[in-house]
Amino acid sequence: MSSLKAVALCCSLKKSPAPSSSELIAREILTALADHDVEGDVIRVVDHDVRFGVSTDEGDGDEWPGIRARILGADILIVATPIWMGQPASVSKVVLERLDAELSETDDEGRLSTYGKVAVLGVVGNEDGAHHVTAEVFQALNDVGFTIPANGATYWVGEAMQSVDYDEAGPKPDTTGAATKSLAANAAHLARLLRASRYPPA
């Protein structure tokens, strides 16, 4: 079976080349996935003109269709988001709203275009809320057809009200690294199963 493909959507509020903890954890997930013969890259969403909306193409230069094509061409979607005010970053919410359009995109047998694709999550922040963010994002991704693996999220949360970000922190905790490795192993395993055996018709 050929290598699996992954695409990571970095939902940082900062445009490149500004350092991004969300991009760092996305790349760490990709590195862990590479151990399971998964190739992939990162898209920093704010570097692109992604319009507000709930369609596959909002027209007038909207760059979501190109990102969407890369999602549909991948086996695994990684969403990496910071926590702001206990919530997923606004950029990640725009991504989820755009993915809502997939509810209308089905094959001849009624399967969503996202069926058979695995979604995982990386979360970073300087406040509590990683579990809340995971719940919100995973529910939305599952609603639009993605499959969530066991232990499909990894996160790092620094001390509340402090200024040290994940990309500036010293040695990373073993718990985050172990979670990332489990995420990668389970995501690759599930993606191969779904590639070999499709979901039944709707």
UniProtKB/TrEMBL annotation:
InterPro entries on file: Flavoprotein-like_sf (IPR029039), FMN_Rdtase-like_dom (IPR005025)
Q: Name one GO molecular function term.
A: oxidoreductase activity
Superkingdom, according to UniProt? Bacteria
Question: What residues does the NADPH-dependent FMN reductase-like domain cover?
Answer: 5-159
One of this protein's Pfam families, by short name? Answer: FMN_red
Instruction: Tell me what this protein is called.
Output: NADPH-dependent FMN reductase
Q: What species is this protein from? A: Cryptosporangium arvum DSM 44712
